[in-house]
Design brief:
heterodimer; A: alpha+beta; Ubiquitin-like (UB roll); B: about 400 residues; Methylamine Dehydrogenase, Chain H; 4-stranded antiparallel β-sheet; about 40% strand
């Protein structure tokens, strides 16, 4: 299982209070993890990435293993520690607004 | 005894204000969806406990919430607003082509007869509809694909479709307004649209007969007389007696300002402009009684002289009286945004409006006197009143 940490607003929307876990079959990438999140929590569709373009929302960032993965290809494999469940995949609302 | 429920959208959540028919004591619930921009909430006339809410943020985009119990509980419904076909471009502020991009829902207008049918006005300007209670949204592309669509330009707040009026007896007819394209009408349920902007004069548009490009801030009507429309335009208040076929200026004695516009040659053009503002609404029982909140000019979005006053016309325009009892008359520099005024249908008609300073004011006597329901909400984006049995 892939461990995922959602920002507070999305936890509220998904009606969860802590880290979630999703199952990914095949290669563990940003795309496959978000596909799994959206399948398990349909109310999050469109909040992490745009419905139409599938691009990451500009003020959403992806981190794992102390690395900023936001600009990595959505189809690049995530670190092994994420794929194995040792480390969470962090979805962060960017600090913005002054 | 009848009750009133006022749905308030703010920059940091939604609030629901309820009172009995006296409208003296209010219960306040909220914030619902704390921290989110709530552009608009509106209830279904066919089922007043069915509410729709536009929830958005710069981080996580657009959500749509639906309640089946008057706002006690909510469930997210479909939030995908995909333009039909290849969207193409409209004009950007500098006149260059700019791709249509969905940004947010500004306004929901539920059907008068079916709680599962709702129209949504969005930015970049288009109209969408659901017929399944929000499970899916489809564009009515005839509007955006109008032959003028590629020349629409955004106003300062964006290219937003902010007003939707449904004809009470003719299901084919709707009126909408877009900043800064103007007003449009359909007579076939939204398949085909045409601009209804004859008579609008905008000093920044060189062509006095321009069919689009007008910065319409809001439109309103009384359901008993749906051919008569009132419009708060950028600088003036307008009236149409023929379903938008033509408009006349009814700004009359509203406060205004002297403005100069430069000419290429010769002296600048001079104008005495009256009636800048955003909101406009019509009394539920008196179709010639209209309310506006004049704001000092397009460069100073606050009330003239620091006095918050609603202006009422009982003659369908031209003759306006300031209403100030109970409203701050010194050091008040708030604004009242375009969807932040509403009326109930009790007798006497109740009027409600919210300010960018977070106050929601109510009048239970058609505007003669006012009192704040609540003082310190986040900036108010929208106010909708429901009259309940």
């Amino acid at each position: 299982m892939i461990r995922v940490w959602l920002p507070a607003h999305l936890r509220t929307l998904a009606r969860v209070t802590s880290e979630i876990q999703v199952e990914v079959k095949g290669l563990v990438t940003q795309r496959s993890v978000i596909d799994a999140i959206e399948a398990q929590y349909p109310m999050l569709q469109g909040t992490i990435r745009d419905h139409v373009t599938q691009q990451r929302r500009p003020f959403v960032r992806f981190f794992a293993c102390e690395q900023d993965l936001s600009h990595e290809s959505p189809d690049a494999p995530l670190p092994e520690a994420v794929a194995s469940g040792a480390e969470p995949f962090l979805i962060i609302g960017a600090i913005a607004g002054g | 005894m009848s009750k009133v429920r006022v749905l308030v959208g703010t920059r940091k959540g939604a609030f629901i204000l309820t009172s009995d028919g006296k409208r003296e004591k209010w219960d306040i619930s909220g914030p619902h969806f704390p921290g989110w921009e709530m552009y608009h909430l509106k209830g279904s006339p066919a089922d007043p406990n069915r509410l729709y809410a536009s929830q958005s943020s710069g981080w996580f985009g657009q959500l749509v919430q639906r309640s089946n119990d008057g706002g006690q509980t909510w469930e997210p419904v479909d939030n995908k607003f995909a333009y039909e076909g290849t969207p193409g471009t409209h004009q950007w502020y500098d006149g260059t082509p700019h791709p249509w991009e969905f940004k947010r829902v500004w306004h929901f207008e539920p059907s008068l007869t079916d709680p599962d049918t709702v129209y949504a006005g969005i930015e970049d300007a288009a109209i969408f509809r659901t017929t399944d209670g929000g499970k899916s949204w489809q564009e009515l592309p005839g509007l955006r694909c109008h032959s003028t669509g590629n020349r629409w330009q955004p106003g300062a707040g964006g290219l937003c479709l902010h007003s939707i009026l449904l004809h009470p007896t003719d299901p084919g007819r709707m009126y909408i307004a877009i900043s800064a394209a103007g007003a449009f009408r359909t007579d076939d349920g939204g398949q085909n649209w045409r601009p209804i902007n004859k008579g609008l004069r905008s000093n920044y548009i060189p062509d006095p007969t321009a069919e689009i490009g007008h910065c319409v801030h809001h439109i309103a009507m009384n359901a008993s007389r749906p051919e008569v429309l009132f419009m708060q335009k950028h600088w003036d208040v307008m009236r149409s007696d023929n379903g938008g076929e033509s408009w006349t200026d009814v700004s009359g004695n509203l406060p205004g300002e002297h403005v100069s516009y430069p000419e290429k040659t010769g002296p600048p053009r001079e104008f005495d402009l009256k009636g800048f503002g955003f909101v406009i609404d019509v009394n539920a029982h008196e179709p010639d009684t209209v309310y506006v909140v004049p704001i000092k000019s397009d460069s100073q979005h606050f009330p003239p002289d620091g006095k918050l006053r609603v202006f009422r016309s009982r003659t369908g325009g031209n003759e306006w009286e300031p209403l100030s009892k109970g409203l701050p008359q010194a050091n008040c520099y708030v604004n009242v945004l375009r969807d932040a005024m509403s009326v109930d249908s009790l007798d006497k008609c109740g009027i409600y409006f919210g300010t960018t300073g977070g106050q929601v004011y109510a009048s239970a006597d058609a505007g003669d006197t006012w009192a704040p329901i609540v003082h310190d909400l986040p900036g108010v984006l929208s106010v909708e009143a429901q009259t309940l049995p």
